[in-house]
Write a structure and sequence with these properties.
single chain; alpha/beta; 417 residues; 6-stranded parallel beta sheet; 33% helix; 12 helices
């Protein structure tokens, strides 16, 4: 059963609303997690892990699950083990918090206070707040794995603290979306945290977001591992390489006029400072500002009409759908002709905060490269209808142009980029 991403309002709110139909597999997983929560509500600790790549419906499942939990918690069935339970949904992403709180206004069982940032939840409980019964964590790959006094987190690991302050914890997790050293997860550290209490792990496999054939997803997965494959054959999903960033932007604007929710995105290879000033990305005749920090805006970045005139980063787009994404691969993503592989140059990456907290990490240069590749994975998996790509590095630019020409020669009859 295919989920429709375009029924009703074509917005992030409608796509994540708990009224969206789940597939049979998602319904079965939802029922399994609900049974797990009911069985372990009074246990000291229990953890349910839901894994899945970007676009596999993790957030929709989690929001639908949380709504069902809160219906039971605030309902009239006093025999339900979930009745009267004290529950939260946490996400370490300010744009996603906006979305969840906006959705709560449409559901009688939900309250805005049900949704919090992990640090806020941890600090409130540490200050004498009531221990939670069930805590759901979206985008758990963003949880901190080391202290971060700047963001008022003074412990050693956010997941460890959340588990300590709840009976049941349910997390959704994608290791390929880790973007910072201070959120660096590995199997050994996770195993240490969850040893000694009930743990269940399930994985979502089906791709819902991108209406693309498997060869598109295989191409993106290969790229995130540094491998350039021949471009996927022409199909309904609009996948193009652009020789000019301005031409790509003009195409994105046209698609936005047709469908809405089409935006420009870029790797964090261009200077940006939170100083209240505009900062710009320039590539040839293309010149457009980075996304403006607007924490008080009610709508998330992808939903605001004015952001068609901005370039989004991983931090404003992670977790969200677009209809078309125009992705600029900046100077840190280079290409080696001899090996025919992507080569990452972390010295060109402008998100220096992503690389803080390297003490004790083995092979930090490899981890830096992986973080940048993960960011590419996030950016390239946003588009439902299409993905457009422009590369800044001359060698990569030339290689992608060659791959595009080879595909054109193979029978792509659409206008050349």
């Amino acid at each position: 059963m295919k989920q429709s991403l375009h029924s009703g309002s074509d917005s992030a709110l409608s796509r994540l609303a708990p009224t969206m139909a789940l597939t049979e597999g998602q319904e079965a997983l939802k029922a399994e997690v609900l049974s797990f929560c009911r069985a372990h509500r009074t246990d000291d600790h229990a953890l349910f892990i839901i894994e899945g790549d970007a676009g596999t419906g993790k957030s929709l499942l989690l929001n639908t699950l949380f709504t069902a939990i809160q219906h039971a918690a605030r309902g009239r069935d006093g025999h339900d083990p979930l009745h009267g339970s004290h529950n939260f949904l946490l996400v370490n992403h300010p744009e996603m918090i906006k979305l969840y709180r906006n959705i709560s206004e449409t559901q009688t069982a939900l309250r805005k206070k049900d949704f919090e940032r992990p640090t806020t939840f941890i600090n409130q409980v540490n200050a004498g707040g009531r221990r939670a019964d069930i805590v759901l964590v979206d985008e758990a790959h963003l949880l901190l794995t080391r202290r971060d006094p700047y963001n008022r987190f003074h412990q050693d690991n956010q997941l460890e603290e959340i588990i300590r302050h709840a009976h049941v914890v349910v997390i959704v997790f994608d290791a390929r979306q880790v973007l910072k050293f201070k959120s660096l997860w590995d199997d050994a550290s996770l195993a240490r945290l969850v040893s000694g209490f009930p743990v269940v792990t399930r994985r979502l496999e089906h791709q819902f977001r991108m209406h693309a054939h498997a060869d598109v997803m295989d191409w993106i997965r290969a790229l995130r591992d540094g491998v350039l494959r021949p471009l996927p054959a022409p199909q309904a999903f609009d996948f193009r390489i652009f020789d000019d960033a301005q031409a790509m932007y003009e195409a994105i604007r046209q698609r936005n006029a047709q469908y809405g929710l089409c935006r420009m995105l870029a790797t964090y290879d261009y200077p940006y400072t939170l100083n209240g000033q505009d900062h710009f990305i320039t590539e040839g005749r293309f010149h457009l500002r980075w996304d403006r920090a607007m924490p008080q805006a009610r709508l998330p970045w992808a939903e605001r009409p004015d952001t068609i005139d901005e370039v989004g980063s991983v931090y404003t787009i992670q977790g969200f759908d677009l209809n078309y994404a125009g992705v600029i691969l900046g100077p840190s993503i280079t290409y080696d002709r001899a090996t025919d592989r992507i080569v990452i140059d972390p010295s060109r990456y402008e998100d220096r905060a992503a690389f803080t907290g390297r003490d004790g990490v083995e092979n930090p240069h490899e981890v830096m490269a992986r973080i940048i590749l993960n960011s590419i994975n996030v950016l390239m998996t946003r588009g439902v209808r299409g993905l457009y790509i422009y590369a800044s590095d001359p060698n990569l630019h030339a290689r992608l142009a060659q791959l595009w020409e080879e595909r054109q020669a193979g029978g792509d009859t659409r206008p050349a980029a």
